[in-house]
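Below is how a single chain appears once it has passed through the pipeline. First comes the sequence as given, then the structure the pipeline wrote out for it. We keep one example in the README because the format questions we get most often are answered faster by looking than by reading.
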Amino acid sequence: MIDSQAAEKISRMKKLRRTLSESFSRIALKKEDTSFDEICVTKMSTRNCQGMDSVIKPLDTIPEDKKVRVQRTQSSFDPFEKPANQVKRVHSENNACINFKTSSAGKESPKVRRHSSPSSPTSPKFGKADSYEKLEKLGEGSYATVYKGKSKVNGKLVALKVIRLQEEEGTPFTAIREASLLKGLKHANIVLLHDIIHTKETLTLVFEYVHTDLCQYMDKHPGGLHPENVKLFLFQLLRGLSYIHQRYILHRDLKPQNLLISDTGELKLADFGLARAKSVPSHTYSNEVVTLWYRPPDVLLGSTEYSTCLDMWGVGCIFVEMIQGVAAFPGMKDIQDQLERIFLVLGTPNEDTWPGVHSLPHFKPERFTQYSPKNLRQAWNKLSYVNHAEDLASKLLQCFPKSRLSAPAALSHEYFSDLPPRLWELTDMSSIFTVPNVRLQPETGESMRVFGKNNSYGKGVSNSKH
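Resulting structure:
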């Protein structure tokens, strides 16, 4: 009897052992089959992975040698946003799975191929050139062409900045700089970079589509803009600059062509091809920056040590141009002519008004006519029509760089005192037009809606007019 019970117990143990062995074998085979080669990591829809829950794996848990073209899933057409305190969801070319190729994986797992059916190989995907349809050419520059396009992923209009690559020259450094800076900037008044597509022949930056730019807007409404619209445009410009300056980034090429205007009046900083992160303490930078009309006198005189005050001079020039309807300092010949136009209004500098000016490489007192400073309204009479406009312009257009108003200080100037206080409380990604009663006013004889065919997005073009 005892022998019979022992034999039965041994039989059950053997059976259990076989069952466990078979189970472990199946697990090992399954692991080898997928071999972490192809692991579902997102829930693109309720049908993904045959209705089964996908595995969500934080990026930092994936071994470095296994990361293959990993991106975050697109919830709002923004591949670079990284929400805090959220598990990063990632996708590969089929938007459902990441392929981790190992030596033991001879080919793609059939099981995973079935799982990825909601995003077939022919479906449009982010990061792919065929995911965007070109609608029309917006402009062409020395190294890039800008097209109006449409996303096949979500149907939104986009601007495609196609940068031509040459084998002997490689990717233009301005394109690399622009992409690397923009993907980290998220603000309502900075143009949004949606996607980057890299092929052997081209590098394409996919931006949100914005209808026109400030240059075209002013051309369409000559003689100066509506004073309230000037105020809203300037507020948005300062808001965007304050954001990048706080992150130690200089734009270095402020001009109306690089300020995009949407059909609702949103102003967005664009073309960061000359922008660069500024280290602390200051290093020297190239003085071949900023289009001549908007270039500050310190840079014109050869200074290579500058800070955010470089951009603030451009703000002053653009402010005057919006109010007056003509460029503040439209140099027609060369740097000498440009400086003469500036000194004619602001006065020829000396060591008393500009400490250190004599040490600048291109400053030769005998080369310049000695002018006394004027009130700005003598040069631009429309400044006197708007409360506090002349005072703000004078604090921006200072020859001595350190005397120029900063972007945060300019936002607190009395010129903006009649705007709703809520504008200063907005989050970075909130438009000023979300505040009640904040809206563009109709320009004289025109609708308030703004439409233009071309916008720059920075085409790498030198503007002969400016």
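The first helix runs from residue 2 to 34.

See the next section for the split statistics.
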